[in-house]
Structure formats: structure tokens, C-alpha cells
Write a structure and sequence with these properties.
The protein is of the alpha+beta class. It is built from 18 helices and 29 strands. 55% of the residues are buried.
Length: 704
């Protein structure tokens, strides 16, 4: 690709900042059409079975209750490739929390109370909800998430591993994790003149429009979806979720607009989550630490409703020298909620295991963990054999080590102490692929000298409005304040979801193409513009559909310092540093925010976040933010994000890589490695909570 690199204005302040702090920004539940009703879904209270009766009469007699939708009277839906959205279509209960009814009422309070009072009879069936590495129903799928082959093999791993003088064989596990965005999943829907309008908390309005059009058997142009402001998603809003479907069904049934907001306690069952994994890492290396054999085997779970396989072994295919390699996934379908995307799916969980194993290898061969990674830098991507478009991992490791003060680190674990506090440091690498999707955009020049860019991108808090305006201004050669950006509505040119760290690259490419075309059109004109202005349109389907001859990835390095209380087992992160190679950083303000946000999420993954499956009830027990502990600002007093300047002409016209997810990828491993360095204890099950760590600390420390 020979497109000229764009150099947007740096450090622009978020365009939506004032709207958000003043309450002017309008979210999905901030729309109240005249006559709006309120809906509350009813989750199943059995783990597996069938609904045999819904006793709705008593609820319908309550003042203010307008309707009760069940599988017996709900609107029939068309076909969908996402069976998690085929709600109220039959009496089946595939897992606890599956929605079996919806109550519609005049107020949210009336709807909620009536939903809780609704009496439902079930015929229960035996259930199976626990993941085991030796589960008899494990199978090898055709693909893992993202279309990756479930199994890849190069060379002869078994023979090479057996012949290796240094061998690591370790198993790492983590429980389910949940997205928990600040804004609840919510939709407000209304039918008018045979068309459907939905205000939805979603990461992609165009996608929601297309899915709803299929479900309600409408032409896409008869469906309008607005996702102007979204308060976070982390993947859970990357595909349509029950609120938009149930609100649209209830609105069609009642003939009035309907608003539906999911209670936070129900999110674990219906909006996706990161599936638990059991990961076995085997690494065979020479005595100088060069890897000759690498195997990453993943066991995970999916639901009986929809297959989703967390691609945790995939990053091992791109990271280190490994002439003999086996990477594979096995999965079992259980009677559990359907897993789905959660920030950095695959990489977040897989790199925790791989980078922990690399730390164990460094200890086994007596080599500094940073140096070990540098010794195993591949010349080309190991799995594909393609050259890297750019690979800044070594630069990130070296710069991170310099900034962190890594040189002179005592490698011995469990020897640094300050009173009751044991302290240590750890490092881990990070990677995330460059993903791009087709996108459309338009650019308009008005006779007043102002420009308008239109694209159905979704700003989920990342600063998309600001960065797209920067890209447009640079491509047009005009001041930033001369550009207005319209986004977040399906009436605008189609755009892919805000996910996979692909948003800015995909949307920005289309915006750049449209603005470049507009600039060329204006250059060929003479005289004043017509009253209606001039518009140029762009579609990047051809460009993004080309198979790149390069392996394209962002890379990073994470460094962590921890303090472990030898009396209580509590772990505190005192310093956290991330250094990234992510192409051209378009806006340092928003980029730093994204990196730090990802690192904080990785801290939660390492120390506080987990969900426990109740074997008897088939339910996740940590169902709110009082029991599911996300990290707060006080949990990491010193957190820094930096990047190396990376020029990569093989990406997109901006020369940018995605940054939304790489911040989480190596953080958990860096913290876990630091805990081992502090204590001498190697725990391989996340999170590293005090109850897990304390039994392994010296007994004398706990009896003071």
C-alpha cells in the first residue's frame, strides 16, 4: 500500500467532554418518546428444562401492568445466525437466567415488581455446568473465535520437546470474567408507520440494524438504530443483545414505545463474558534459553445455545521463535450462559499463560526475563512465515526496562522485604493483531467554509469523535475546528462495530479516503460552492479485502512492581508501566487513556475479578459490583503508559494500529510474575486473592 501517511493534530481535547459532564449527551435510556412504557425481563430460575406454565393473570390485574409476553404470545421472529437473540420463541430453558417472559408496565417500578411476582412453572432436567480439563464431552472445534483454525502444528513438537535440555510443563487456569460497563445494557424502541426505531447501547448501530431487520423481517431501510453515546462495552455490546430485541417485541405487541434496561445482576447470564480456561504450556529450550519446542493447549467451555471458543492459543503462534509448535483448542458445551467477546478476547487469557511460562523458563535457565524474550525474537511470523509489517516488541522491552529501572534487578525470588511487606517486580510482553473491516464514509464541504464528515462509527468512550475529526482535518488540509463529525446512527454510511481494536483504523481509512476525494474535487473547481455544497463518498471494501503480504500486529511490554503483605496475603501494585509499539499514535490524550484503562482492567484480571459457578444452581455467584470486584484508582497509585515511535506504511493511510485492547494483554502476567518474584510462590490460577496466596506464605509471618 502506498498511501501517504497522515499526521493528525496531536493532543486534541475530546469533543464530547462538555456534553458528558453537563448531561447534554443522550444515552439509550435518555430518550422518552410520548406514551413510553417500561419493560422488565423475567429470567429463568432453573438451570435446564422447559417452561410448563406462566401464571400471568394475577400480574395483569395489577394497576399499571399493560402486558406479559411469553413464548405463547410474543411476536414471532425470523431467522438469525445468533440463537441467543431468538427469545420467547419456545419453552426451552438452556441455562439459568435465560429470559422466559417480559412484563410491560407504565413505570419501571411497576414493571420490576410485577416481573418479580410472576409465577412460572418448570419441568427441570439434569444439568452440567462445571468445566474440567478431563471432561468426557470435550471436542475439537473447526475454528476458534475470529475464524482461527482450532489447531495448528509445525515441525515435530513431541520429539523436539523430549530432546530439549530445559523443559517447562505448567498448567494455568482462570475463572470466568465479566465486562460490567458503566452504562447498563438498554434499549428504547418504537414502531411507527411500519418502521422500527431503536435507541440502543451498542458498539455498532449498523450491525444492530441489520440483525433487527432480519429478526422482524423488514427491509434494512425500515429500521433505524441510534447509538450516539455509549457508556462502555468492552465487547459485551459488540453484537446485539436481548434489550433491543425484547424492547422491539414489546413495542410491537403493545403499539407503544417501550424502554428496557437490564439490571446489573442479570448481565452475567445474557450479555456474554470471558469463558474460563485451563491452559497447558510446554516449552522446550536450549540451555541458553532459545526455544525449540512450544505447545499451548487450551480447554474452555461454550454453551448449548451458541458455540464460542476463546482463541487463547492463537497469540502463541506469533510471539516467539518456535520451529516445532503445537497450538490447539478443545471445548465442551455446558448448560451455562453463552460466552462472547471481552476486551482482547484470546490474547488477554492466552498471553497470561504464555508470559507466565516464559517467566518460569527464564528462572529455569537463569536468564533475565527481558533478555530471554529478546533472544527469542523471530525474523518472520512463526505461524504464517510472513514478514512483520513492523515489530516493535524489542524496542518496547528495552525502553520499558530503562524507564522502569530494571537494570540491576536481583533475580532471586522471595528475598526483598520491608517489614511485613515482600516486594518484587515482573515483566510480560503483549501483542494484538491489526484488524480492519470495510467501512463507508462521506465528506461534505459547505459554502460557509465548514466541513461535515458522516460515518456510523460508535464512540464507546474512546474519543472516536475527536480522532476522526483530526484525520479529516489533516486530509482536507483545514483547521480542526472547521470539521464536524456525525456518527452513531444507522442512517449514516455503514461502519463496522467498535471492537477488535479496529475502529479507528477501519473508520479512519474511509474518512481519509472520502476527505481526500473531496479535497481533490474542490481543487478542480473554481468559484464559489453551490448552496447545497459538495459531497464525496468512500467505501474501503476493496482495500480492506486485500490479503496483506505482511503479518500485522501491535506489540507492548508491561512492567509491574508489587508489595505482598506476608501477614494478610494481600497484594498491592505499587507501580505499573506499559510501553507500546502501535504504529502512529494519532492523539496522545485519548491514546494514554486507552492504554491506562486496559492496564487497569488487566490489574483486575490478575488480583480481584472472578466469577464462581454454583454447581447446584448453575449461576454465577458474583452478580454485582459489591461481589465482583473491579479495580479502582486507589488500587494502582502509579500507572504510566508510553510508546515508541513506529512508522509502518503497510497498515492504513494513518499508519495506525489499534490500541484499545493491547493494554490489558500482558498486564496480568506481569503482576503474577512480580508476585512470584516477591514471594517465591508460583500460583497459576487467577486471580491472586489473599485466600489463595496466604497458605503458601511462611507460617511464621502469619502468627505475629
Amino acid at each position: 500500500m502506498t498511501s501517504q501517511l497522515v499526521r493528525p493534530t496531536t493532543g486534541a481535547v475530546r469533543r464530547d467532554a462538555r456534553q458528558k459532564v453537563t448531561g447534554e449527551a443522550r444515552y439509550a435510556v435518555d430518550r422518552t418518546p410520548p406514551g413510553c412504557l417500561h419493560a422488565c425481563p423475567v429470567p429463568a430460575t432453573v438451570t435446564r428444562g422447559r417452561v410448563t406454565a406462566v401464571h400471568a393473570d394475577a400480574v395483569l390485574e395489577r394497576p399499571g401492568v399493560r402486558a406479559v409476553l411469553t413464548h405463547e404470545n410474543a411476536p414471532r421472529l425470523g431467522e438469525s445466525d445468533d440463537p441467543t437473540l431468538l427469545l420467547l420463541q419456545d419453552d426451552r430453558v438452556p441455562h439459568r437466567g435465560w429470559y422466559v417472559a417480559v412484563v410491560v408496565a407504565d413505570t419501571p417500578e411497576i414493571a420490576r415488581e410485577a416481573a418479580e411476582a410472576l409465577d412460572i412453572d418448570y419441568a427441570t432436567e439434569d444439568h452440567d455446568v462445571l468445566l474440567r480439563a478431563d471432561h468426557p464431552d470435550l471436542y475439537t472445534p473447526e475454528e476458534a473465535n475470529g475464524g482461527h483454525p482450532a489447531v495448528r502444528e509445525r515441525g515435530d513438537f513431541a520429539a523436539a520437546f523430549t530432546a530439549s535440555p530445559v523443559r517447562i510443563d505448567a498448567t494455568y487456569s482462570m475463572s470466568a470474567l465479566h465486562n460490567h460497563p458503566m452504562e447498563p445494557h438498554a434499549s428504547t424502541a418504537r414502531w411507527e408507520d411500519g418502521g422500527l426505531t431503536v435507541y440502543d447501547s451498542s458498539q455498532g448501530a449498523s450491525t444492530v440494524r441489520d440483525v433487527l431487520a432480519g429478526l422482524f423481517e423488514l427491509p434494512p431501510q425500515r429500521v433505524t438504530v441510534v447509538s450516539a453515546f455509549v457508556g462502555g462495552g468492552f465487547g459485551s455490546k459488540g453484537t446485539p443483545r436481548p434489550p433491543c430485541v425484547l424492547a422491539a417485541m414489546a413495542s410491537r405487541h403493545t403499539g407503544r414505545p417501550v424502554r428496557l434496561v437490564l439490571p446489573r445482576r442479570e448481565l452475567a447470564a445474557v450479555v456474554g463474558h470471558r469463558a474460563p480456561t485451563v491452559q497447558r504450556l510446554r516449552i522446550g529450550a536450549s540451555e541458553d534459553g532459545v526455544i525449540g519446542a512450544l505447545s499451548h493447549e487450551v480447554v474452555t467451555q461454550t454453551s448449548t445455545v451458541k458455540e464460542f471458543v476463546e482463541q487463547a492459543a492463537v497469540p502463541a503462534r506469533a510471539m516467539y521463535t518456535s520451529p516445532n509448535s503445537f497450538t490447539g483448542h478443545r471445548v465442551v458445551a455446558l448448560d451455562v450462559p453463552s460466552p462472547s467477546w471481552m476486551r482482547a478476547p484470546g490474547e488477554a487469557s492466552g498471553m497470561y499463560a504464555l508470559e507466565s511460562a516464559m517467566d518460569e523458563l527464564a528462572g529455569a535457565v537463569g536468564i533475565d526475563p527481558v533478555e530471554l524474550r529478546l533472544r527469542n525474537e523471530p525474523d518472520v511470523e512463526p505461524d504464517s512465515g510472513k514478514p512483520f509489517s513492523s515489530r516493535g516488541l524489542a524496542a518496547c522491552l528495552r525502553e520499558g526496562a530503562r524507564r522502569f529501572g530494571w537494570e540491576g534487578r536481583d533475580p532471586r525470588p522471595g528475598v526483598r522485604r520491608d517489614g511485613d511487606l515482600l516486594w518484587g517486580t515482573g515483566v510480560a510482553s503483549a501483542t494484538y493483531p491489526v484488524l480492519l473491516s470495510p467501512c463507508k464514509a462521506s465528506a461534505h464541504a459547505g459554502p460557509d467554509g465548514r466541513y461535515t464528515v458522516r460515518v456510523d462509527a460508535t464512540d464507546i468512550g474512546t474519543g472516536a469523535r475527536t480522532v476522526l475529526a483530526q484525520i479529516a482535518a489533516e486530509a482536507l488540509g483545514v483547521p480542526l475546528d472547521a470539521v464536524r463529525v456525525e456518527l452513531g446512527s444507522s442512517v449514516l454510511p455503514d461502519a463496522p462495530v467498535a471492537g477488535g481494536s479496529s475502529g479507528t483504523g477501519s473508520w479512519g481509512w474511509a474518512v481519509h479516503k472520502a476527505c481526500t476525494a473531496l479535497r481533490e474535487t474542490l481543487a478542480d473547481r473554481s468559484g464559489a460552492l453551490p448552496s447545497e455544497g459538495v459531497t464525496a463518498e468512500a467505501d474501503t471494501e476493496e482495500e480492506t479485502g486485500e490479503d496483506s503480504p505482511y503479518a500485522r500486529h501491535a506489540f507492548g511490554a508491561h512492567f509491574a512492581e508489587v508489595r505482598v503483605d506476608a501477614v494478610t496475603g494481600e497484594v498491592r501494585v505499587s507501580r505499573l508501566l506499559g510501553v507500546y509499539a502501535a504504529g502512529r499514535i494519532l492523539n496522545p490524550r485519548t491514546a494514554r487513556s486507552q492504554f491506562i484503562g486496559g492496564m487497569t482492567m488487566g490489574l483486575g484480571m490478575a488480583l480481584t475479578e472472578h466469577s464462581t459457578m454454583d454447581a447446584a444452581f448453575g449461576d454465577y455467584t458474583e452478580r454485582d459490583l459489591a461481589s465482583y470486584h473491579v479495580p479502582a484508582c486507589a488500587d494502582v497509585p502509579a500507572i504510566q503508559a508510553h510508546w515508541v515511535d513506529e512508522h509502518d506504511p503497510h497498515l492504513n493511510p494513518m499508519g495506525s494500529k489499534g490500541i484499545g485492547e493491547i493494554g490489558i494483554v500482558g498486564t496480568a502476567a506481569a503482576i503474577a510474575n512480580a508476585v512470584h518474584h516477591a514471594t517465591g510462590v508460583r500460583l497459576r490460577d487467577l486471580p491472586l486473592t489473599p485466600d489463595r496466596l496466604l497458605p503458601h506464605l511462611p507460617a511464621a509471618d502469619r502468627t505475629r
